[in-house]
Amino acid sequence: MAEPSAAEQRWLQAAQAFARRALPAREGPGGAAPAPVDAVLRCLRAAGGGDLPLGYSFTSVSDLLHQQSTPCCSHLTWSTNEFKEWARQGQGALPMQSSLPRAYLILVGYLTDGRQEEKEKLVDGCLYVKDNTGIIPCEILHFELEWLESLFLFPSWAYVPQTDQGAKGYVEILVDPVPVNALPKKVLDTIPVIYPAAAEPLLASRIPCKKRSKLSVAGELAKLSPLLCIHHKTFFFLFLKCFVSAVGVPVLVQKPNQLAWHHVFQLGHRYIITGLSMSSLKKSGQRVFVTGVSSCLLPYCAKQVKEQPLDSAWQGKSPQSAFPEASVQFSDSSELGVEQERPGSTKESKIISYVGTVTKILNAQAGLFELDNKVCLCLAYQQLLNSAHGLRPGACVKLIDVHLLQKPLVSFRFIVLGACLNSTVVLKSFSRLSTFYQPTVSSGNLYLQLLFRYNLGMPLYLWLVSLLETFEERFSCFFGHRRLLHSSVHQDRGAAEKFLVPLLQGMVSGREETRDIYNEMLAKRHQCPLQQYWTLDPPCQAPSLSKLCCMAKQKSWDDFCPSRLLSPSEVQHMGTQELNRSLAWSYCMFSAGSFQPRVVLLGVLRVSSRSSSLHLQDKSSTLPCVISHKDGSPFANTALIGSLLQVEAYQLVVERFLQSDFPSWKQLANVEHVREKKNSVYVQFYFEDALVLQAPEVQIQEGPRSRNSSSLRKKDDGGSASELEIPEAKVLKLDDPKPDIERNESCQRDQSSTGKNSCVSRLFLVTQKEGLMLRNYQLLGEGNGEGQELQRSFQATVLWLGRPQFWSRPRKTVNLPELEETNCHGEEGMTQQEALLLFMGKSLRWFPFLHLDGLYRFIVPHCSDLEVFDKLCFPPVPARFLSRSCCPICLPVPDTWHLQHETWISCLTERQLAAGSVLTGMEQRISSIPEVLSNRFTGSLVSFPGEIVERTLCASPKNEKPSMSLSLLQQKGSLLATDHSVKLSVSVAPSSPVVLDVYIAATYLQHLWGLLPGAKVLFQNLERKISRFHNVYCTYIASSCISIMSLPASRLPLLSSPAGEASSSSLVFLSNLQLHLQNMPQARILCHLSCVLTLSVQWVCSLCNSIFKEGKCTRHNPPCPSHIGVRQASARVLVEDGTGEALVLCRNQHVAAVLGLSLLEWEAVQNCVQSRGSVSIQHGEATGTGCVEEPEDLLACYLRSLCRSPLICRPILLDFSLDRKPSKIPQPAPLQLRNFRCGEAEFVSQVQPRPSLLCLNVEEVEQKALCCLNSERIRRTSSHC
């Protein structure tokens, strides 16, 4: 024999080293077995035709598990061309996937059916490859029992790691392994057996099982159940049937050393099982054959068996067969037929067989796989104890007796093949593609636990999977997969379970059934959860926030109709600017039920220092939110930041911003006039309607974080809005960032002496809060102030309560020891210290939590200096400008400080109020709307609550426009033009006639949410003003602030009803008009129309409001290009009801009603006016009214005659309101001299001036109705006398 080369010697040395490390010699029956390395080399030479594979290297199981991180395959005996052809064939189903890369590795090991755990062999039904370095699961298509515990060379195999790089993989054995040592051959004697036809009646025999001897049964394998593990016992069932009929008997295999049989069995093959006895299942009572310790599995050979006659111990009564021939028939259909669908009705699933290729792993944990790009295979109803080894894209599977379900879920696009416990799944060939392995784990699997707990059918299970997939995708970046999908057995439920369990309980309520797995496998009539199904229309959905916003925006514009936003009676008389301004800003509100199916809102509560507002966030997007309490108190709980909330009662608001150039109302249906559409979406809800599914990982009440612990801030890296933060309010991050202010150094120096967890806290009361604004704040040490940009900031005036407190660790206080300390020592004057807190930068996140009359606590982490609050303070202006020593000091709030809300001043006990006597009278002066409107009110800054009854976009007055620099800075993020203002009409109650107008410049609106009709709002520090017409109104200024106290009702009309369309006004007298209008916004009178004082009918230009004549505008300097006119009309009439007189102003369509003209007659009058431009008529009594009567023509004569006609003077029902704003300050009116004539006598008397009324509706009164109304009026007058 020739001497080996140097390369071969090195290779042999490596082989020897591998054998010593991984393949120790085993003791044989005759002493020490030969060295394994020699036998291995002999096998390698035989496989390679006498040559050693010098291009290959040995790999141990440990090396494979810890060093191989990508899928690979090894083919010891293949040429390069053979491997390429093998790889090419494997890419047929998935041409976009790459094939397995070839690795030149030699795998040698023992095949075993268990693994060692705590010095005991644990048998779970899986096969393993092991050596002295470790053990690894394996899958093999053909297996023999003689292979167990034998050393094998694996010529072709593939290693498949998990998708999780830190997890271990498994080995796919592609061809039969080669035994290193010759396997012993068993010599079998003739075996006496019985066949299923004779054994089947024995299962119904009444003879006790203990008196019977063991049997050996021979038959063809007809059915094989999956491996099951119930109560820590692993077992499986099989059916042996006769060779000539379908009569079969069930056999239970549950001995640990026999679980490997499951890998040996092949459907249609013939076997002998020895040592069988009979047993009854406890729960179902069914009788089956059971293997014993001495039972053996043998291949059937007709020459080695003889039929055993039954002795007298086995004779007994033989009832009718429990397994008739039809009960075990197999379906050989491989086609997916299309069944006729009956929506909503219960359907029967078909049982078929199918062969297909795995093309995608839909959800490994849920047991969902895609076959042939068109079918969904669901294995969730089986346990998959082998963790779905081998089910990778590219693998071929054979499905036997699976259920075919067509469209079980409306939104599910696949036909579903469901495998129950009666189904068999056979892996036909392994995948040749380089795909990772996604294990299906039963323990802690929330998908499977909920499936089995509620015995869900396929439609409900697929809906559950879709909800869980969306839930996990949205929030795993915040809480991690394990915390989010934590399934509880003896502990608290995780977030996903809290969300899903109530939904499932509502769906399965009243039809809960326990799954009987034994009947499912053994009953003569098959019953399982997949047998019947219906097409489920999901009751709810939980889309991502980005998808929800898109749905809301799409729905808002789909429902958008410009003509519906405007009153039909008013839109015809609007000019172009007024028309387009009325359409520029609108909103629509959606609830959960506005979507189909209804939408459940889920999101992590976060706060943004950039926008200083609350948000709900998931992985896809953020959604601004407004949170209120049902008792009217503001939301201030900073401990909830970072919590996962579920809300089902909410209002999703879409603010629509439209830029349009509609010439007139006639073109509203033409979308070409819409130049730009924008949206702003936010949600508002009551905190009482929110459910906390998951709290943050660490809360301040539970103590601080360690320095090495991870924070939620790190988990937010995958989010789409990085400016959203969980402040130290929730997660107290002890890694102290670089301080922004140098004076923090004194605090930082003391950390080492007191420990990492110490902190300083101080209690304070908020007495005033100002709004978010760009201000010219400049901290000390930042330069001389030249060229400094304005900073977004807000400020609050607070009152310090007690001394600073030193805490060894953060904690939640209960009794407010600062107040108790003040009471004990009697140091009341010490707490009379005010401070002006300045919030800038990241401290702006506290803006939505800081509210008036709230008691809060600042917590300074990593600090022991009790003077830290004094050291960081400075005067608001340089000392050389100070003229008063009592000016409050300023404290810029550092970014690292934590804010904790304690309570409200109204919630303090009497003892606490007595202790903190300085709190008495500290509440800010809150006025009422009537007080603000009173002429006795003297304040310039006012605070008051009220309900928004109307929201109107109007042009800003010239004197109210902000400066250009401020506008440019503030319009970033604002969707309204800076020359617009919003007028909020605020009232004490919706039906109250007392209304106060609040004007807010558009530049301020980007920080304000929830200003909708119906919302109750607390306005703080508004500027009270009086117009030249003596109307009181308020404006939002830099020091103003708004808090939402209550949300609007769920259903609000988009528009108020046009005046007079649905009037329910009370019938009153003119004599007591003022008394009635104090309690109601409008009223009704039965009156007599005395005369028409003035009448004006005109056409005006839609652009410039000049007279529009003969189809064009009459303005010449500069010329107006408009070719569209708008018709307008007004009339002032005199009415009386026997108790007094009044002047009534009528506009547009009410003028025709006063004149008694029909619609056609009024249309003809307006068309005649169009050629002239305008016509004005005045009565002789109305001198000095400013109306200029037109020269004589036919139209003027007609209108004058009509106004003076006796037909005009008639009884009418008039709905009206006062012709002035309710906010107008009443001016003293002098008495007027009036002439009265009675016969020939004439009297002169002083009378009150006639009230001015605004017509809302005019109704004609017939004679019969007039009598009834007069009778009612007389009766009511008598009852009041």
Automatic annotation (TrEMBL):
Taxonomic source organism: Dromaius novaehollandiae (Emu)
Entry's family note: Belongs to the CTC1 family.
Region feature Disordered, mapped onto this chain: 702-755
Entry keyword set: Chromosome, DNA-binding, Nucleus, Telomere
UniProt-recorded name of the protein: CST complex subunit CTC1
Annotated PANTHER family: CST COMPLEX SUBUNIT CTC1
Alphabetical list of InterPro entries matching this protein: CTC1 (IPR029156), CTC1-like (IPR042617)
Gene Ontology terms: biological process: positive regulation of DNA replication; telomere maintenance via telomere lengthening
Claim: Nucleus is one of the keywords in the record: yes
Localization (cell): Chromosome, Telomere; Nucleus
Entry GO terms, CC: CST complex
Residue spans of biased composition, Basic and acidic residues class: 727-748
GO molecular function terms attached to this record: single-stranded DNA binding; telomeric DNA binding
Parts of the chain that traverse the membrane: none
